[in-house]
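Thread amino acids onto this structure.
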């Protein structure tokens, strides 16, 4: 059997390396904080709004962690908690108000949503410039068309991690397990943009264990602990575990069994892999949106004064 080794991780490549994300996340947060300080000094303090319409505990934890990271980076985080009884019209009206508010640069609609509220339908109400988590159908369409747009932060985090660990993508075979609009599909688009050859698997994939070992780079975003075992992984493959599954013991585990480390070239840990990079990228995207907003204001002033 021929064994194909993808480019190993940058920091001395060895089989089974843990491809952590906390150092990378710190670097992204520090840069975002420096940019946020510059923007605040120029009179444009970056602001991120998070719209919540759920009492889900995991969601509340996630929102708290975003707010904390934003505060540390000097980005104001405004949480609009509408409560689980909020109807789609109330949520849409809030997203429209925030979209029209010049002080707000980024908007996230938190899931889960109340029954009867449709995520794609509602995120369409977010102003495209402020869609820092690439959630709206417009952002996803622009991403698919190769046009400028914020990609969903989790999908972007996968690419950041691969780059950070020196994984070459051009011409590589990548398999993405999961096809949600939040992770699977945008990850596949981003890999395609980097000239990888991409296969997407889902619930109806007839024989997952026959497809995943074709991957030089395997990205798993399903939400099923232990779905991917050593038999699913080619020797030396790079495995990115996006899954986050709470255990009964209050821990967080991914979709990939740790036994995979004996076979893979590298595996992202859960927690400490994709998660912290995702949060850091939301901050980066918010700062970028604020920079563009400041630039547009400057151009308007120039035009009006000239
Ligand atoms: P999702 O919307 O539920 O999508 C799950 C996907 O997995 C679907 O496309 C589904 O296929 C596929 N799937 C389910 N069972 C499968 C199986 N046996 N074999 C192959 N594919 C299967 O979930 P998501 O929002 O994409 O999230 C996926 C995981 O990532 C979750 O654990 C979530 O908590 C985690 N996540 C982590 C972060 C982070 O920052 N770390 C961010 C977002 C999500 P069908 O389309 O056919 O149903």
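Threaded sequence (306 positions):
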């Amino acid at each position: 059997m021929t064994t194909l080794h993808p480019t190993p991780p940058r920091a001395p490549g060895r089989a089974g390396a843990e491809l952590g994300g906390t150092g990378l996340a710190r670097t992204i947060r520090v840069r975002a904080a420096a940019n946020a300080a510059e923007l605040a000094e120029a009179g444009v303090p970056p602001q991120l709004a998070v719209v919540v319409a759920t009492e889900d505990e995991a969601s509340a934890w996630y929102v708290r962690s975003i707010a904390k990271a934003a505060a540390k980076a000097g980005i104001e985080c405004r949480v609009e908690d509408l409560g689980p009884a909020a109807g789609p019209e109330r949520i849409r009206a809030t997203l429209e108000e925030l979209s029209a508010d010049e002080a707000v640069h980024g908007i996230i609609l938190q899931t889960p949503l109340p029954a009867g509220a449709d995520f794609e339908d509602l995120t369409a109400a977010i102003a495209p410039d402020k869609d820092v988590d690439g959630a709206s159908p417009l952002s996803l369409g622009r991403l698919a068309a190769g046009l400028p747009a914020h990609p969903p932060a989790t999908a972007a985090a996968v690419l950041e991690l691969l780059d950070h660990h020196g994984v070459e993508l051009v011409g590589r075979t990548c398999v993405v397990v999961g096809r949600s609009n939040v992770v699977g599909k945008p990850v596949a688009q981003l890999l395609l943009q980097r000239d990888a050859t991409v296969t997407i698997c889902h619930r109806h994939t007839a024989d997952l264990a026959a497809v995943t070992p074709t991957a030089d780079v395997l990205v798993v975003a399903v939400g099923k602990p232990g779905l991917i075992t050593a038999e699913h992984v080619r020797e030396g493959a790079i495995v990115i575990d996006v899954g986050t599954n709470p255990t009964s013991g209050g821990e967080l585990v991914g979709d990939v069994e740790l036994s995979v480390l004996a076979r893979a070239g590298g595996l992202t840990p859960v927690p400490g892999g994709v998660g912290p990079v995702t949060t850091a990228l939301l901050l980066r995207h918010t700062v970028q949106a604020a920079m563009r907003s400041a630039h547009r204001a400057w151009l308007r002033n120039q035009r009006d004064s000239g």
